[in-house]
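Fold it.
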Amino acid sequence: MLSYLTYPTWLTPEVIPGLPVRWYGLMYLVAFATTYALIRVQIRKRGLNASADDTMNMGFWMIIGLLLGARLLSALLYQPDMMYWQRPWLIFWPFQNGRFTGLVGMSYHGGLIGAVVGGVLYCIRRGWHVREWADIVTVSVPLGYTFGRLGNFLNAELYGRVTTAPFGMVFPTAPRFPAHEAWVAETAQEVGIAITDPGMMVNLPRHASQLYQAALEGVILWAILWFLVAPRARRTGVVTAAYIIGYGLARFVGEYFRQPDADLGFVLSFSGDPGPVYLLNSYVDFSMGQVLSAIMIAAGLALLFAVQKVPGQQEQIPSYSPPAKNRSPNSRNRAKRARRKN
């Protein structure tokens, strides 16, 4: 009896096979559109004077910062041979060995830093309240992650570690393992894969970590922020801190199921023998993603402490006030003075 799932054969990276339109890119467009729509909802709830063009312009500069930061951190931290430290001019060079390859490798954590820089600079330029806009953006973006991770799944990439769980999935692009190795034969037998030749290569089931992360970093985190944290937050910055902590926790947990980059392995190990990256042998061997997520959690806790305790950060704000058109001129003026004071 088979005890695993097979990746759907009818799924292909292209929306229409043979045409240069891929699901991955389409999913990112859906993610950006979803985030934009949720930001506009927040603007209306808070009664802010920000047009659709304002939102688009801020999003544009945040995306520019995201792309630059994601590429920089990926090149500088995820390249084991340190090539880009020695030749930094190649970081944004889209050719390798005379072939166009695009910019291979992007880091979420670097993208976050870049997006923050882009968003802060735009807010300063427009004279907007940085922390209030940070809350608006961070409560809106997690749902977009769902579509990005679905794009990874549709590409059959960023799959997880080998598992014998009945919901493990065989991905067509995953590396195969030699059947003569004892652990491979035992795993295959447990999930019901027949080994007809000791010299064959076996494609073992793996965690569908893209879907796990879509749920953890996307739907669940967004629901917590949108329905639980944001309606109760009465100080600017609380939602942002909750997002940083929440994403760090979700990504840290998700990394236990996702296979780390083979060329990096475990960057921090306390077990003494971490084993191969495609197996979960210990919970105290950590990937680069987990290390960066731990830093993210610490930064979020520090921000939450500052928002709650540091003098000058304790003023309450009229969050989730009715749209401006439904309020009197005096109430709108009081809200504007409160935001400027905070």
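Strands lie at 5-6, 95-96, 99-100, 169-170, 177-178, 201-202, 268-269, 285-286.
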